Amino acid sequence: MDSKEFGLVAAQQLFQVQDLHYGFWEEGEIPSVENFFEAQNKHTLFLFKYIEEAINADKKCKILDIGCGIGITTKKLLKLGYRVDGLVPSSWMAQKARKNTQPYKDKTRGEIYECNLEDFPIAYLSEKYRNVFFSESFQYVNMQKAFDIFNLILSETGTVIIFDFFKRDGVTGKSPMGGGHSIGKFYETVKRNGYTIHTDLDVTKNLSPNLKLLNDILVNRAIPFSKTLDAFLSSRYKVLYRLLKYTFRKKLGKMNYKYSQRRNEENFQKFKTYRLFVLKKLDNRTIAAL
Fold first, then answer.
1. Most-buried pick from 30, 152, 181, 184 (CB within 10 A)?
2. Which pLDDT does position 282 carry in this prediction?
3. Is the pLDDT of residue 271 over 70?
């Protein structure tokens, strides 16, 4: 289990969240732990609106949820009657996803592929997808390799939906937040691969309040607990404590840099841009004319 997977699993288990994505907050809405699940549902409904538009609400066509996590979004689409499969590289998450989607699985929908997108078993694909989508999972894939796969698994009228954050280009200062592809390089990759951007929505202000909520949780809950644990270990297990502090000094320094009041809403808006993209394939005649 790598560090990225560990973080997702820890969030799911510690905070008892099912959907491993941000919440969507309306303008003026004050984020809180109490209304976080409602905000997550708004995020899902916002995404579903564009999925339905992309496929003209045709429940006969196939959809692929790339980076489906433990299968909650896949399950919701299956429950609505859509023919959707999921893909996730984590064995733990794939197992959970299969359990969550099992009641809706049949011969033509509900398959959970345990692999990276680059390793998708294309040879076994009996029907191409009309839509593939990412919900905060595009940041983990190689962009060019992803488009190579799109060309093999998408139908002629296929669409790609990406709901994720990207790095802003040309921003001064060092970002305390990792993750996300360069927005400029993304635009270049889309054009180079013969796709057109049908929809490009900047919803950064609707998603950035999550950082305020996360900061509140860390400052008011996690950090006080960690200080208590630190004091306990340093007094009871001095040799082990010193060994652990030395072994993980670089990791701890990095975490302190990221979470010492710098990983906040203002910096998220400065360094990141959260977007919803709908991409459409250009036909060969249009590509040749470019």
1. 181
2. 74
3. yes
- SS3 category, 241: helix
Cβ distance 106 to 37 under 8 Å?
A: no
Q: Residue 173 — left, alpha, or beta (φ > 0 → left; ψ -120 to 50 → alpha)?
A: left
10-47: pLDDT as tens digits: 444 444 445 557 899 998 888 888 888 899 999 999 99
pTM: 0.81
Cα atoms found within 13 Å of the Cα of residue 67, Cβ hemisphere only? 20
Sequence-ordered strand ranges (E) for 47-177: 62-66, 83-87, 112-113, 129-135, 154-167
d(CA 162, CA 21): 13
Strand-pair partners of 154: 129
> Which structural domains are found in the chain, ordered by start?
31-204+272-282 (3.40.50.150)
State the CB neighbour count (10 A cutoff) for residue 24. 23
Q: How many CB atoms lie within 10 A of CB 74?
A: 28
How many residues are there in the chain?
290
Which residues make Cβ contacts (< 8 Å) with residue 75, sequence separation at least 6? Answer: 100, 101, 104
CA dist 44 and 34 (Å) reads 18
